[in-house]
């Protein structure tokens, strides 16, 4: 796995030192998203060490380090200060510390696990006393329509983001699946979505996704889109993206700039969307809200559960976390906007 320069900067905490060729080969065994997640955990551990006035340390970490980190980061009786993380996240961070040791060929102290397991049980009981945070808000059709109007006519970048938003909603896609790690340069074969990944059928248009979060190595997942008689039609959005390209190998979600093709990166797309949502008075909506909104609407209008799972590429019942309740009025408003 090749990391773009921006990504290499994002994971500087995880390597902890200059990489050797063998380190790079080990690194290639992990997905990009996995390494970025690992880096966040190692960064948290670094904050912990700094809080102890320790700025230079080496691997392996000690048993006391492990226990103290769990006590510092997780909740305990009378110790629920701001900044504490829940047990699920803390468990992930501990998994990361093990991976960090594996990466550097250092011996992790697995004998700590019995005590850590008990500490985590105690933390989970404290977590249960904290009110659950609300899940991601869904993008409603009314939100999507307002976003569509806001971004229309604002230039090629805004047009690309607008079409991206429409496709992400109806395709229940993750933004990272449709955007690019680098904003310039050619898209490597099977590394990012290009116009040749779009296939048109009689009743459906599909997009091949080569870097889906849940895909096995080499697996291609498929986003399925159906045409609707509305400006918010995802097939129309795809066609507009294809018309904005000059080659089958161009980025599907990109545009021509003064110095050549510009590929929409996730970060850049999020910046454009965040600014638009702020202007529309909906700052609580995020890139993940499109996937939530798509699943929520499909469920609200009575689409079969198995069909929703297929469209969202869910193989388990975790789709339930994405389905939010809609009032009858919200459903009627959505269908009215779509003129369905």
UniProtKB/TrEMBL annotation:
InterPro entries: DNA_brk_join_enz, Integrase-like_cat_sf, Integrase_recombinase_N, Phage_Integrase-like_Recomb. One of its GO terms (biological process) is DNA recombination. The keyword Transcription regulation does not apply. Keywords: DNA recombination, DNA-binding. GO terms for molecular function: DNA binding. This is Tyr recombinase domain-containing protein.
């Amino acid at each position: 796995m090749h990391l773009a320069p921006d990504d290499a900067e994002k994971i500087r905490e995880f390597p902890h030192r200059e990489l050797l060729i063998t380190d790079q080969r080990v690194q290639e065994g992990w997905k990009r998203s996995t390494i970025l997640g690992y880096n966040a955990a190692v960064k948290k551990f670094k904050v912990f060490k700094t809080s102890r006035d320790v700025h230079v340390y080496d691997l392996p970490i000690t048993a006391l380090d492990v226990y103290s980190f769990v006590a510092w980061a997780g909740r305990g009786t009378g110790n629920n200060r701001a900044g504490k993380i829940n047990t699920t996240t803390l468990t992930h961070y501990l998994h990361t510390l093990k991976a960090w040791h594996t990466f550097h060929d250092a011996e992790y102290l697995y004998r700590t696990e019995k005590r850590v397991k008990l500490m985590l049980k105690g933390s989970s009981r404290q977590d249960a006393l904290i009110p659950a945070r609300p899940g991601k808000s869904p993008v409603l059709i009314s939100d999507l329509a307002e976003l569509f109007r806001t971004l229309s006519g604002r230039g090629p970048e805004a047009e690309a983001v607008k079409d991206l938003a429409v496709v992400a909603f109806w395709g229940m896609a993750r933004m990272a699946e449709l955007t690019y790690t680098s904003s310039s340069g050619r898209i490597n074969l099977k590394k990012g979505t290009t116009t040749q990944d779009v296939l048109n059928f009689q009743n459906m248009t599909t997009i091949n996704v080569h870097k889906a979060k849940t895909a096995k190595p080499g697996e291609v997942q498929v986003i399925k889109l159906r045409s609707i008689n509305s400006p918010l039609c995802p097939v129309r959005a795809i066609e507009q993206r294809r018309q904005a390209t000059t080659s089958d190998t161009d980025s599907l979600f990109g545009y021509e700039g003064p110095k050549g093709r510009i590929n929409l990166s996730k970060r850049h797309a999020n910046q454009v969307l965040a600014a638009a949502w702020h202007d529309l008075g909906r700052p609580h909506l995020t890139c993940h809200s499109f996937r939530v909104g798509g699943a929520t609407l499909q469920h609200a209008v009575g689409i079969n559960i198995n069909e929703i799972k297929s469209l969202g590429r869910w193989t388990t019942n975790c789709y339930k976390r994405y389905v939010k309740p809609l009032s009858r009025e919200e459903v009627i408003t959505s269908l009215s906007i779509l003129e369905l």
